[in-house]
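The record is passed on directly below:
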Amino acid sequence: MQKNIKANKIAVIGAGNVGATTVYALMAQGIGSEIVLIDINQDKAEGEAMDLMHGSSFVKPVDIYAGDYEDLSDAHLIIITAGAAQKTGETRLDLIKKNTEIFKNIIPSITEYNQDAILLIVTNPVDILTYLSWKLSDYPAKRVIGSGTVLDSSRFKSLLSKHCGVAANNVHGYIIGEHGDSEVAVWSLTNIAGTKLKNYCPICDKNCHTNELEKIAENVKNSAYEIIDKKGSTFYAVSLAAARIARAILRDENAVLTVSSLMKGYYGINDLSLSLPTVVNSTGIEKVLDLPLAESEEKDLKKSAAQLKSNLKKLDI
């Protein structure tokens, strides 16, 4: 780590629902000792920082304040949540042009003051914006991470935990590929406490027909649309996902998380960012894992990559 970087300092760019809730999640879990909140609306950032700091006596010591880009010069981790929000009826990919233009301003503002941090992109469409951030920042690929399908994988585990009647942390499974409509559920490796799902279901007396499992995967994919339709936006779970990734980085955990990162020949996929189980630590991306996917899953992953690639070609980057 560079001498001017503070190991436990985090900058969050964007003080909207996701950004403010991410700072709250970081604060509540004791992740980071210094957090600067940056937003184009300075009053909003200051108000959120004040509100959060008023609860500082209930958590581990932390300094939370509103600032500007100069204040992120010594941050170890920079989390970007700023951007246009997904509206009812919009897909994540519909946001491409809006948020690409926003990031063309944000990333140079970051690199003007900090070339040594790790970037964590949360804004959608996260895979495309992760790739764009790598291109614009000139950071090493291992230090540009997208929140990817960390949230989707959690949704997957949550729905399976209800279906199987076990705690979510005993469900092990991954959603890979795009964080969006082409995401892939890795059923072949999904297990309950080490027991493959196809073997576990008879034990728990569940009648797991293929169409039931497919419905779970569809519900995972469509969860955000349903939540946006009902309450306008999603921010609690994605903020917890961002905090989980931040914890892996600041505590040097070598945690396996389905973050989005630059593909370098995995399953024959190159020159775009998407999600696979990845070892994450204080240096960023340590290793992307090559899973023994079923043939159909690998085929679907490549389809997901092709869809993202076609959208990337439409951008001037």
Q: What stands out?
A: Residues 53 and 194 are 42 Å apart (CA to CA). The longest strand covers residues 6-13. The chain has two domains: 9-146, 149-314. The radius of gyration is 19 Å.
